[in-house]
Amino acid sequence: MDPHFHDISIALYRQESETGPTLLVHTYSSIEGAQQRIETLSATMATIGAMQQVEGAACQLRFSCGARHQLASRRLFLEACKLPPEGTSQPRPLSIFDKKSSANVTVSSLGNGVYQLSTDGDSEAASRRCSAITGGLAKLGEMESVEDGENRIAFSCGHAHDELTGLLLVRALNVRSTLREQEMAAARGQLAAPSAQKQ
Amino acid sequence: MTSRQRVMAALRREAVDRTPVCNPTSVATVELMDLVRAPFPDANRNPEMMARLAATSYTELGFDSVMPVFSIIQESSALGCKMQWEQKDNWPTVRMREPIWVEPDDIKIPPDFLTHPDMKCVLDAIKILRKEYGNEVAIIGKTMGPWTLGYHCFGVEPFLLMSLDDPGKTKLCLDRMKEATVQFGLAQIEAGADALTLPDHATGDLVSGEYYKRYLLDLHIELAERLPAALILHICGKTLDRMDYIAQTGMAAFHYDSKNLPSEAMSIVGNRISLVGNINNPETLFSKGPETVREEVYRNLESGVHLVGPECAIPLQTSIENLKEISRSVKDWHKDHSTSN
Q: In the CATH scheme, what architecture does the domain B3-340 have?
């Protein structure tokens, strides 16, 4: 549900086209302004996640690599929905300050979809945090670990996705809380028998 | 056959042109609410909105039935329970931590029970649907069984403890509460309902098959005798251990959960009662795609289940596409089978 526009429901639908998988941002609401809201949301996703808008269909998006990136695109959709429509959206940087280790964590693109995480903290704790954040990022982006390097992960499509990585990095700092939030959102709206309800 | 004829024939286990797609609980979703501008919680309390949202089951999803009573709380609200009406994306619930009854003598069905706004809303919605759709589609109402009312009005834990400590008192309570079930059921039949779902949450996780026999079998037989419409009993969870008893109630159908295999359920009930179900909600309809929905529909059809539909009220965030796939799959399966035969 969209807290920024009359609580209308907005969904991301997987679609197959001749050129590969696409994602359709869609609402069944016909209230005035709903279509415009959907178009704004699609444009936001295109900006902060570097997705391409399909020509002639502003609400249909695809990744340039042609892959689906299901979990990452879902996260991108949720993050885009959270942004107020009146603001200007920008892609997130590939570096972030991690409060837990009091150090900056940076992600560097090594090409072919491979990313290296590093920290400017020199303590063992900072190093452990960097590994944990790498794991979180891999989980959120369905990325694979690369054997020939510590804290090195890759998108299976073999293409760079800097904007998407920057977006996921914010959530990778606290991946458990992100997944918990996801689970709670999924549980909402499920009717439980009275005996199974939290009273 | 019209949708209504198809559903009613299947509830009597008579021949049908294809298996009906039936929704004895709820297929309301936030997308459907947007589509017809009938959001929760208003759609549970305003008859026009309730009817409009219920109709989407037939007009948008291709089901053969409509069911305007989305929630399980209308009677409890009229009985005086404290309610939490929630927002568009969540179900209204009864605050069971604040029970209204403790002893059998506390049980009183208010004189304005049927005219309470939350009851009248259901009755008016059924009348609207009957007027709008005539005999095209089966209109299913819902009246909660006394076991569920016990949870709502006494609280889950106190009611279960009473059933352990004092079976006589529990039976007396059930006997008194069943009058609410009968009154609301009769009123819905009079308003135009073709069939009634009777949820009575003696669920597999808390109540055994023997418990069902001890407390509810005779009572359900009595309800089937007193309510002159096809009754569809709904109990969530694993219920194979009580399906033989359920088949003896005289009810038209049992709406069963995906925790029970269609083939096993069918082998128990045989042709004594129709089965409705049992497409999984949280994993299949909510989280998976149309391909998985189709597989589950086929599993039910291949087992000979009489009416196909979701196992329970579907999660409000379920996609319309997955729900449409149920009726598409049923039609395709019958097409394939009539060709191969």
A: Alpha-Beta Barrel (3.20)
